[in-house]
Please model this.
Amino acid sequence: MRINIPQLVLWALYANLTRSSRAQSSNGPAYPMFQTVLDEPSLSLWSAALQLHNLVSLTSGLGSNGLGFTMFASDDASITRLMASQGQETSTFLQSSLCKQMLQQQICTEIFVPGVAAPAVILPNLAGGDQGGLRVEVTAAQVPGAPLTIRILDPVYNASIPGGAAKAGTAVLQQIPAANGELYIISAVVRVPGIQ
Model:
């Protein structure tokens, strides 16, 4: 008797086998976006959301336009704050349309690797919509030799800010290259319709 194992289970098995055997580094090989997300301990909720909303194969390839991805992944602490503010349990939130909108807003359909400071740039994202994408800016380092600062300019949800929304963006916590794009870990969730 032959048993078909869903692709999601195969991904999980592969991740468990490879996670402990390698560490992501700027000098080491880059892995596809989903595998890069899976290897980051602070992105377990983001990883689960990608799986539940069938974005694993999409974010493991180059996308429909062949240009790869830029993913602004909210860390677990940010998503946990958002769930608490909405009064939702983890499983309910991860399966919700609100969660899917969050993913679509924060996954951009081309690779963004800034080399110099630049004013606001609009990166096309999976959500599309009137704005056409996610607005980001790159500012020069305050200290010579320090990395550039990337900020999301769209309003973000952050429970530590009175009123929930930041008027001007959120700084990127960490940048990690992937084989098919760039992963940026952020400490907030970009606001989407439905977030109170």
